[in-house]
Specification:
Elements: H1 3-14, H2 25-28, H3 42-55, E1 59-64, H4 68-79, E2 83-86, E3 101-104, H5 111-115, E4 119-122, E5 126-128, E6 133-136, E7 153-159, E8 164-165, H6 168-174, E9 182-184, E10 189-191, E11 197-199, E12 206-213
Parallel strand pairs: 1-12, 2-3, 2-4, 4-7, 5-8, 7-12
Antiparallel strand pairs: 5-6, 6-9, 10-11
Length: 215
């Protein structure tokens, strides 16, 4: 039996076709896929995350918790950011040293207001090393989904190692599927039929990820 036959058989069972429908999707659907690939230490997992983030053209920075505010201020200054969107639950010390005017995330913010902002700073829910993916779930330190899609520059803080997992199945175990999940693998990019890459079409043109340790 080929892999194609196996996959089509599972589809038929799920659709109540030939082979019959599963009694329960929780127990009768084969979920024997690997939860992660390989056996890595915590340090190796964090290194893999940094490597894959960079491979997706994100800019990766490392710092310690006491230096986080200074690091964010430096990145905003290097970008020339004069305004920054601030989620309601962002720790105030993260932007205490930044010389930028905050725009607080509110339901009343218009797309035009967000489009005029230089940068946004958020935390994250979890980061996946194997795919170089950061997941936001709309928590107070991440804000509404739109504030990370409209501004052209996104600084995202990942606490290591506690927010880093090896693979997608491990990330799903930590996430609430009822929340507004945004999965980010590098800056926004797309390609036309001639494979010309264009960045910033449906999200930030520049993604900077800070891996912060030592909290």
């Amino acid at each position: 039996m080929s892999s194609r036959d196996v996959i089509l058989g599972r589809v038929r069972r799920a659709l109540d076709g030939q082979g019959g429908a599963p009694t329960t999707y929780a127990t009768d659907i084969d979920r024997s896929y690997l939860r992660e690939h390989g056996d890595r230490t915590v340090e190796e997992t964090v290194e893999l995350l940094a490597e894959n983030l960079a491979d997706y053209r994100a800019l990766v920075h490392r710092t310690t918790h006491p230096e986080l505010g200074r690091t964010i201020a430096r990145l905003l200054a290097e970008r020339g950011s004069r305004t920054v969107v601030v989620p309601p639950g962002l720790p105030p010390e993260w932007l205490a040293e930044a010389d930028a005017t905050p725009l607080h995330d509110r339901a009343a913010n218009t797309p035009a207001e967000l489009d005029g902002v230089d940068s946004v700073v958020t935390a994250c829910a979890v980061a996946v090393a194997e795919t170089g993916t950061i997941v936001l779930d709309g928590s107070p330190d991440q804000g509404r989904r739109r504030i990370t899609l409209v501004p052209d520059h996104h600084i995202c803080v990942v606490r290591v190692p506690e927010q880093v997992v090896s693979a997608v199945p491990q990330a799903l175990e930590r996430l609430d599927p009822a929340r507004p999940l945004t999965w980010i693998s590098g800056p926004s990019a797309t390609s036309d039929i001639e494979l010309d890459r264009v960045e910033g079409v449906h999200g930030p043109r520049t993604l900077e990820v800070i891996l912060v340790s030592g909290e």
